[in-house]
Amino acid sequence: MSILTQIAKSRQIYAFLNAQRRCKSSTVAEFKYQKKLNVPPESLGIVAGRKWLPGSTAQNNKFPKRIAAPKVNMPAVYTASETQTSVTTWAEKARGIIDSKLHIFGAILFRGLPILNSGHLAQFVKALGYEQHSYAGGSGTRRNVDDYIMTANDTDPSPFSIEPHNEMSYTNHYPHKILFYCDQPVGPGRGGENVIADGRVIEKHLHPDVLEKCDKLGFKYNNHAESRENVPGSYFTWQNAFRTEEKRVAEKLINEWGYDFEWSNDDSLTYWRYIPAFRTHPKTGERVWFSSPHAHHAEYLQNNPRMSTLRLPYNR
Q1: N or C: which end of the chain has fewer CB within 10 A?
Q2: What's the pTM?
Q3: Cα–Cα distance for residue pair 82/166, rounded to 1 Å
Q4: 113 CB burial (10 A radius; 0-12, 13-18, 19+)
C-alpha cells in the first residue's frame, strides 16, 4: 500500500500535577503540528533513468535525479501525542484538521496514531464520518481488504512506477479525498514511495497554449477492457473495473455515468466519455487542473512491465 498515514512510535506528553507533594500524571490527546517533513536526501526516490517510468530513460530527458524534497506544508505533518486514546477519538480530532486545513495545504500526513492494521484503519475511516466512494469505474487493479479499505495497487511486485495523477479524474464521479496508509514499510532502495504533488502548481508549469486548448476541447478518455474469461491475467478487465461479473450491472453503471459503450464479439468492452480538463474546487470555488491525459495512452501502458511486449492499438 502507499504511504500517507505512517505508523511511528509516539511519545507521550505528560501534564505533571503536584498536589500535597504527590505527583500525578495524565496524558493529553492532541496533535502536534509540523510545517515540514524532514526526509534524508538519500532516501528520496530516483526519477531520471528509472525503468518503467515513461520518458525517464529517453536520451536528453529533463527529469530530475530524485523526487523533490517535501516543501512547507506539502505535506503538513500532524503527530499524535500518545497512543492510549481510542482510534475513534483521534479520528474526530483529525476530522477537524482535515476540514479546516486540507483545502489550504493540499496534503496532510498523520503520524503516531494507534493504527496497527487494516481493521484499525477501517475504524478510523468510518469514524471520520465522510461519505464513502466506490472505486467502480476505476482503471487500477485493487482488491478490498476491509470495510472502506482497498489495496492501492495490485500490480505484480516490480519497478513499475505510477506518476502523480488526479484520482479518477478520467471519470465524472471522482472522490474529493483519498487516504493512504502504509501497512508494511519496505526496506531502503526497494521503492514504495507514494509521490504527492499540488495540481495548482503543476498547472503553473504548463504552457498557456496547452491550457487554453485543453480548456476548450477537454479530453476524450477511451477505455478498452478485456473479459477475464477470455484473457486470464489481463491487467484491465471490465469485471475488475466495474466490480461485477454481470454485464447488466456494468451497463447500468455506464448508463448512470453517461458514457457511450460497445461490446465486442469476444465479450470485451469499450467505453468512452468526454471530460473537462478543469474542475471547480468544491470548497474554495477556484478552477483547478484536474486531468490525467499523460496516463491514458498506449505509450504509457507499454511502460507497464506486464504490457511491454504487447502491441497495443492506439484507438483502444
Answers
A1: C
A2: 0.81
A3: 33
A4: buried
